[in-house]
Specification:
By secondary structure, this protein is an alpha/beta fold. The protein is built from ten helices and 18 strands. The structure holds alpha-D-galactopyranose.
């Protein structure tokens, strides 16, 4: 299995768009090590759209833009590997990428071979400029087949924005993760729409095949390519909590070379990451929604404990209750409740636990049944 737990890493798009340079990517890999991201489990360094020149080479191959990657892609991938990290790249199933660069339609074999020769470990495969009449699912199957034919293990990220319900077929064409939605923006509205909109897709995810609700915007604060006003730290905590409960891939979108303390505290929280990376691989699911604003989500974990999120989408604080019965536990069960963000034990409780949840906030608990 290439992705037994949700892939963790960084992707250039959210902050940098097409403004790529090999020094940025190398410095990002350096920051993975220096900032503790690598030690926390973040592994893939992925360059998104904009790495290519406008024309293929005479040999039919994609060509890295020499102004951005003067040493080529293979040298960059070697550098990333020398740090003990993995390297990902981007292409598209249509004739052009979303930025209008040459894409892989009709060139699947040579592109897959080129990526394998560059020691690529991860391919994000987008959906712009699909020729009319071409079947989208077939195009993803074709690239899946060509990736397998290279013999190199390459994590395959289908990115067709949920159009053809990829949760129903993408695993069967070899995908390890598939985007379920359009692009995220760095705003509370976008996070809310995409994140809470994942309810109902949980049965399709598991080890080696994950729903992908797009990359994180934590730490962007309204600057960068998908800027849209930005979020508060409270909202970023909610964003990260939800993506962890969803067993979502954790692909960072901020500039990891310059994270502030609040951002580091969110993205490096070991208890949150453990919930996301739990080996059972269950995607968290909605168990209760009240008056469209107050949502309770749970994620069963491998050791029999449960991660529970009480989410308040409203603009004022709200007392919310996690009742054991709604968590599929007998209500006489005694459970130890631990605050997942702080690690602090909140004691042993029967029947339920109540908490005041801040606006746009979450209280995330780890609940472990214990003997009475
Ligand atoms: C699409 C994808 C984004 C990004 C851009 C690049 O919009 O959904 O994630 O890859 O293309 O052009």
């Amino acid at each position: 299995m290439l992705a037994p737990t949700p892939p963790m890493g960084w992707n250039s798009w959210n902050t940098f768009g097409g403004n790529l340079h090999e020094s940025l990517v190398r410095e990002t890999a350096d920051a993975f090590v220096a900032q503790g991201l690598k030690a926390a489990g973040y592994q893939y360094v992925v360059i998104d759209d904009g790495w290519q020149t406008d024309e293929r080479g005479v040999d039919g191959r994609l060509v890295p833009d020499p102004a951005k990657f003067p040493n080529g892609i293979k040298a960059l991938s070697a550098y990333i590997h020398s740090k003990g990290l993995k390297f990902g790249i981007y292409s598209c199933a249509g004739s052009f990428t979303c930025m209008g660069k040459p894409a892989s339609y009709g060139y699947e074999e040579i592109d897959a071979r080129t990526f394998a020769e560059w020691d690529v470990d991860f391919l994000k495969y987008d959906f712009c400029y699909k020729p009319a009449g071409a079947d989208g699912i077939m195009l993803y199957a074709r690239m899946g087949q060509e990736l397998r034919a290279t013999g190199r293990p390459i994590v395959y990220n289908v990115c067709e924005w949920g159009i053809n319900e990829p949760w129903k077929w993408a695993a069967s064409v070899g995908a390890h993760l598939w985007r379920t939605t359009g692009d995220i923006a760095d705003s509370w509205e976008s996070i809310e729409k995409i994140g809470f909109g994942q309810a109902g897709l949980e049965a399709y995810a598991g080890p080696d095949h994950w729903n992908d609700p797009d990359m994180l915007t934590v730490g962007m604060y309204g600057s960068g390519n998908v800027a849209h006003g930005g979020c508060t730290d409270e909202e970023y905590r909610t964003h990260f909590s939800l993506w962890c409960l969803l067993a979502s891939p954790l692909m960072l979108g901020c500039d990891v070379r310059s994270m502030n303390e609040a951002t580091r505290a969110i993205l490096l929280n070991p208890r949150l990451i453990a919930i996301n990376q739990d080996p059972l691989g269950r995607q968290g699911f909605l168990i209760e929604r009240q008056r469209e604003y107050y949502e309770t989500w749970m994620k069963p974990l491998a050791d029999g404990s449960i991660a529970v999120g009480l989410f308040n989408r409203d603009v004022s604080p709200r007392k919310m209750i996690a009742a054991w019965a709604s968590l599929r536990l007998h209500d006489r069960t005694c459970c130890e409740v631990v605050d997942a963000w702080s690690g602090e034990s909140l004691g042993v409780h029967d029947r339920a636990y109540a908490a005041e949840v801040p606006p746009h906030g979450v209280n995330l608990f780890h609940i472990t049944p214990v003997k009475a």
